[in-house]
Amino acid sequence: MKEAWDPYERGCPSRELLNRIGDKWTVLVLGELADGRARRFSALRARLSGVSEKMLTQTLRHLERDGLVTRTLYATVPPRVEYQLTALGQTLSEPLSALRKWSVDHMVEVEAARTAYDAPSANAGTAD
């Protein structure tokens, strides 16, 4: 019998998983691996502009722990490590692709809304 997971409930493990999937670096790592090809750490870091080595390492470890990414170590000199989506990780490709597409398709409207909100007179007289 499947447990009833509810991310709105404090302490529910599905909330932690939802937070992980929604993390910006997770979304970008999974997106980069979505084509099914394995990537080396250095290739991921080069593609994900702005990610620190520490943050990428942490993100990849979490994804591996959650069963979304596999880490393969090749006994070469120097050692080579590659990351690839698991079958479970592949199931996130479509929904994350839809979110990525939405963000690109609607960026103009979002920027306009931000500009309007940030205008000095936009929030005058509103209660917090």
Please give the structural blueprint.
Layout: H1 13-22, H2 24-33, E1 39-40, H3 41-47, H4 53-65, E2 69-74, E3 80-85, H5 87-90, H6 93-105, H7 107-118
Antiparallel strand pairs: 1-3, 2-3
Task: Summarize this entry quickly.
With 128 residues, the protein is mainly alpha-helical. 54% of the residues lie in helices and 11% in strands.
**N-to-C SSE string, H for helix and E for strand:** HHEHHEEHHH
Which ranges are low-confidence, i.e. pLDDT below 50, for 5 or more consecutive residues? Answer: none
Reported CATH architecture: Orthogonal Bundle
Largest sheet: 3 strands, antiparallel
The count of β-strands is: 3
CATH topology: Arc Repressor Mutant, subunit A
What's the helical proportion of residues? 40-55%
Instruction: Please indicate the count of domains.
Output: 1
The CATH C-level name is Mainly Alpha
How many alpha or pi helices?
7
The CATH homologous superfamily is called Winged helix-like DNA-binding domain superfamily/Winged helix DNA-binding domain
Spatial order of the strands in the main sheet?
1-3-2
The percentage of residues in β strands lies in: 5-15%
